[in-house]
Amino acid sequence: MASRAPVATGRLLMGFRKWYYNMAGFNKLGLMRDDTLHEDTDVVEALRRIPENQYNDRMFRLKRALDLSMKQQVLPKEQWTQFEEDVHYLTPYLKEVVQERIEKEEWMKN
Known about the structure:
By secondary structure, the protein is mainly alpha-helical. The protein contains four helices and no strands. The protein has helices at residues 5-24, 41-49, 52-70, 91-109. The longest helix is centred in the N-terminal third of the chain and has 20 residues, at 5-24.
């Protein structure tokens, strides 16, 4: 019985994550999770490093979401970003930028 608990907990956790993802609402505008990050200096540097096609896709999604928001509309349900389709395209670049900043701060201390 104890061996089943992690599986049930994992399914429950995944169900909660999907529910929360849909309740956040950004997917109804066609946005991905990384599109909603606050653009501080680290995020701006990470955006500078992503490939041009990913940057262009991001700008398209943001402009479309802004247009929909101004019209107080959402995309048709078949065009919503699905939890399974949401790719964390910016996260690897952001982790790299943060790590470099931390290393630079450590270097400057010495």
